[in-house]
Design a protein that fits this description.
The structure is a single chain. By secondary structure, the chain is α/β, with parallel strands linked by helices. It has two domains: about 200 residues, Alpha-Beta Complex (Quinone Oxidoreductase, Chain A, domain 1), CATH 3.90.180.10; about 140 residues, Rossmann fold (3-Layer(aba) Sandwich), CATH 3.40.50. It is built from twelve helices and 18 strands. The strands form three sheets. Strands 3, 5, 6, 9, 10, 17 and 18 form a seven-stranded mixed beta sheet that branches. Strands 13-12-11-14-15-16 form a six-stranded parallel beta sheet, with helices on both faces. Strands 1-2-7-8-4 form a five-stranded mixed barrel. Helix 5 crosses helix 6 and helix 8 runs parallel beside helix 9. The longest helix has 13 residues. It starts with a strand and ends with a strand. The structure holds nicotinamide-adenine-dinucleotide and zinc ion (ZN) (2 copies). Nicotinamide-adenine-dinucleotide (NAD) binds next to helix 1.
């Protein structure tokens, strides 16, 4: 069927909203009409060329929610009319990682970056095949996806808020709760308060951290972090690290969660030097794929037993954790409504990313008609 969506034709390249053809769902696939999609920085990493992909044009968006419109053969657990969230990584449930409670590392997840064997989206009027961000393309009005990328949710939930759980919320919350192993009484620094970092703040607060220090050069972000429970907020890591030391008899933070928009080695180095003996620097943000190395004291690494922990999707198991996070929202524990600063029509997507770069949004969200 004919649809419309946001693509880049090359990288770096501008966001363009164009006519597309999307195929009917094949075996194991479903078609979804999008209701809303969050503007995560990861899509922008593709648009600016930080994260090259195997096929251009490429249809962006991965933090989406909508309604199932068609169901392919062999899909028994989803039906037309179901409300769903995309999990930005699929979970097969059968590979070594899924079977070990590490769905975020599912072998299917690696494949979404490859050129599709049978493309599901083409440019309209017989045009070129189009790649799909995370195998989903949430900035497309109607898209077809692998059913393993979809998590069914309750009809009571607002799709324009629930969409955030498919990436930003789970990634940030999990970075603190799972990867940072935040415990009651901990001192936690969250470096970079966007859609991911604000959820690391929420996660750290609810895991019982008593000192949660937000770091962001943008004043609006620092104010928002305090609304979400941060006890302190500073423009620089130097100030944050000093406060962490003051609160810990000179030791440093139990963990630093790095959720900067474009991560560089120096950010990881700052996080590493701010943690205490045996502390954890969690690296969640992405930078340029080609970047290698970070200024780390090898002596501190060994003799202080410090840890650097990468974190994909907050080390969550989407099948279990997306519904669990939504239950926390229903219970009034997890904030979602407050994360959405501005909403956009699909055609305003370029403006949305401009606002993200200018630090105007915790999260911008595209609302579909
Ligand atoms: N690991 C994963 O699974 C995963 C999932 C989603 C997103 N990400 C990545 O996480 C990162 C954050 O995403 P987002 O959508 O929240 O981005 P965002 O652009 O909305 O937020 C990033 C924030 O970092 C701040 N910042 C910039 N430089 C800083 C510095 N030196 N110190 C402190 N703060 C600084 C910015 O002001 C901004 O508020 C991106 O790199 C994104 O690609 C990773
Ligand atoms: Zn994302
Ligand atoms: Zn798997």
């Amino acid at each position: 069927m004919r649809t419309r969506g946001a693509i880049v034709r090359t990288a770096p390249g501008p966001y363009e909203v164009v006519d597309l053809e999307v195929s009917d769902p094949a075996e194991g696939e479903v078609q979804v009409r999008l209701a809303a999609a969050g503007l995560c920085h990861s899509d922008d990493h593709i648009a600016v060329g930080d994260s090259p992909v195997a096929i251009y044009p490429f249809a962006l968006g991965h933090e989406g929610a909508g309604v199932v419109t068609k169901v392919g053969r062999g899909v028994s657990d989803l039906a037309e009319g179901d409300h769903v969230i995309f999990s930005f990584l699929p979970a097969c449930g059968r590979c070594r990682w899924c079977a070990s409670g590490m769905q975020n590392l599912c072998d299917e997840g690696g494949k979404v970056w490859m050129a599709p064997e049978v493309p599901r989206i083409h440019l309209a009027d017989g045009g070129a095949p189009v790649g799909q961000m995370c195998g989903v393309s949430a900035f497309v009005e109607t898209t077809t996806v692998d059913a393993r990328s979809v998590v069914k949710i309750g009809d009571d939930l607002p799709l324009d808020k629930a969409c955030l759980v498919g990436c930003g919320v789970a990634t940030g919350w999990g970075a603190a709760v799972n990867s940072g192993a935040v415990r009651p009484g901990h001192i936690v620094i969250v470096m970079g308060i966007g859609g991911i970092g604000i959820n690391a703040v929420q996660g750290a607060v609810h895991a019982g951290a008593t000192t949660v220090i937000a770091v962001d050069p943008v004043e609006f972000k620092r104010d928002e972090a305090k609304r979400f429970g941060a006890t302190h907020a500073y423009a620089t890591m130097a100030e944050a690290a000093e406060i962490a030391r003051q609160h810990s008899n000179g030791q440093g933070a139990d963990s630093v969660i790095v959720t900067v928009g474009v991560v560089k080695g120096e950010h990881v180095g700052e996080a590493f030097s701010a943690i205490r003996k045996g502390g954890t620097a969690v690296v969640t943000g992405l930078g340029n794929n080609a970047d290698i190395g970070a200024p780390i004291s090898l002596t501190e690494l060994t003799l202080y037993q410090k840890r650097i922990q990468g974190s994909l999707f907050g080390q969550c198991n989407p099948t279990a954790d997306i519904p669990a996070l939504l239950d926390l929202y229903r219970a009034g524990v997890l904030k979602l409504d407050e994360i959405v600063t501005r909403t956009y029509a699909l055609d305003e997507i370029g403006q949305g990313y401009e606002d993200m770069h200018a630090g105007r949004n915790l999260r911008g969200v595209v609302l579909f008609d």
